TrEMBL record:
Protein's recorded name: 2,4-dienoyl-CoA reductase [(3E)-enoyl-CoA-producing]
Entries under Pfam families matching the protein: adh_short_C2 (PF13561)
Cellular-component GO terms for this entry: peroxisome
Organism: Stachybotrys elegans
This enzyme's EC code(s): 1.3.1.124
InterPro entries linked to this entry: DECR2-like, NAD(P)-bd_dom_sf, SDR_fam
C-alpha cells in the first residue's frame, strides 16, 4: 500500500535527520505507530517493528522500507509484550541485525468500551497486562541497548482519559495513568545516564483503529464530537508523527519526563467523555440507563496491538 508522504510527515524536516539511528517499536503494525515509524525511516532511521500478527507485521515492515532507498525495516510478529522473554529476543535481534537501538516507542495497547459493572477482573487485568506490564517489559528489554546509544530516547503512547476521568474507560484510564508514571520514573532514574523519557498523548486521530473502535459511526455524533475540539478538527497521523520526530530529535534533547498532548486542546473540555456514546446520549442518563452506542465497531473484548 502506497502512502503519500504528506499523510505522515510535514515538509519542514531535514532529510537524513536520523541517519544511522535505529528505532524499536511495539505496536509497530498499528495505524499510529506504523506512521510514526514510517516518518522516522523516511528521515534516515532503520527500524524494528513488533506486532501481534506475523503476516501483517511483516507486510507493514516491507511497506515502510519503501519510503527510502536502502532502508532496513525488520517486522517481528507474534511477539507478546506481556512476556519479557519475547521482547528480549526481539531487542537482541534488532541490535544484532541493525547495529543497536537508539529510540524506543512503546505503543502496544488494548482497549474496549465497557462500564465498570461489565468489566470482569480478567478483562481489567488483560488491559493492564498489555499496556502496563508490556511497557515495563519493553523498558527492561531495551534499556541495556539504549544505554549504549549516544542519543537514547524512549517514547510511550498514552491517553488523556485519566486527566478528568472518562466513562466507559476505567480500565484504560488506569493503565495509561500507570504508563505516565513509568515514564516519569524512567526520566528520573535514567536521565542522569543520558536517556530522555517522554509520553505522546494523541487525541481522536482520524482514520485509525482506535477511532473506529471507540467512536460512534453516526454522522451526527461525529459532527458533535468534533465541535468539542477547540482546534476545530480531528487529529491526523501526521500530527502524531511530527510530534514523534520532534521528541526524538536533538531539538528536544532537554525535554525529559514530559507528556506532550496532541489533541487540539480537546482534553481541556473533557472531550474524551464522548467515547462510546452517540450525539443524543447525555451524561449521566446514558450511564443510569445502561446505554452504550450501538454504532461501535466492538464493545467487549480487548484488542491488543502487540
Amino acid at each position: 500500500m502506497s502512502v503519500p508522504e504528506s499523510t505522515y510527515l510535514s515538509p519542514i524536516w531535514r532529510d537524513d535527520l536520523f541517519k544511522g539511528k535505529v528505532v524499536f517499536v511495539t505496536g509497530g503494525a498499528g495505524s499510529i505507530c506504523s506512521m510514526q515509524t514510517r516518518a522516522l525511516v523516511r528521515l534516515g532511521a532503520n527500524a524494528c517493528i513488533l506486532g501481534r500478527s506475523v503476516d501483517k507485521t511483516e507486510m507493514v515492515a516491507r511497506d515502510i522500507a519503501t519510503v527510502r532507498t536502502g532502508a532496513r525495516v525488520i517486522g517481528i510478529g507474534g511477539c507478546d509484550v506481556r512476556k519479557v522473554e519475547n521482547l528480549e529476543g526481539a531487542a537482541r535481534r534488532c541490535a544484532q541485525e541493525l547495529g543497536g537501538i537508539d529510540f524506543v516507542i512503546a505503543g502496544a495497547a488494548g482497549n474496549y468500551i465497557a462500564p465498570i459493572e461489565n468489566i470482569s477482573s480478567n478483562g481489567f487485568k488483560s488491559v493492564i497486562d498489555i499496556d502496563v506490564l508490556g511497557t515495563f517489559n519493553t523498558i527492561k528489554a531495551t534499556m541495556p541497548y539504549l544505554l549504549k546509544s549516544t542519543t537514547p530516547r524512549i517514547l510511550y503512547i498514552s491517553a488523556a482519559f485519566h486527566y478528568t476521568g472518562t466513562p466507559l474507560q476505567s480500565h484504560v484510564s488506569a493503565a495509561k495513568a500507570a504508563i505516565d508514571s513509568l515514564m516519569a520514573s524512567v526520566a528520573l532514574e535514567y536521565g542522569p545516564r543520558g536517556v530522555t523519557s517522554n509520553c505522546i498523548t494523541p487525541g481522536a486521530i482520524q482514520g485509525t483503529e482506535g477511532m473506529a473502535r471507540l467512536g460512534s459511526s453516526q454522522d451526527a455524533s461525529m459532527a458533535a464530537a468534533v465541535r468539542e475540539i477547540p482546534s476545530g478538527r480531528w487529529g491526523t497521523v501526521r500530527d502524531i508523527a511530527d510530534a514523534t520526530v520532534y521528541l526524538l530529535s536533538e531539538a528536544a534533547s532537554y525535554v525529559n519526563g514530559h507528556t506532550l498532548v496532541v489533541d487540539g486542546a480537546a482534553w481541556r473540555r473533557a472531550g474524551a467523555a464522548s467515547v462510546g456514546i452517540d450525539a443524543d446520549m447525555k451524561y449521566p442518563d446514558f450511564l443510569l440507563s445502561g446505554q452504550i452506542s450501538q454504532h461501535l465497531k466492538e464493545t467487549k473484548k480487548p484488542k491488543a496491538k502487540l
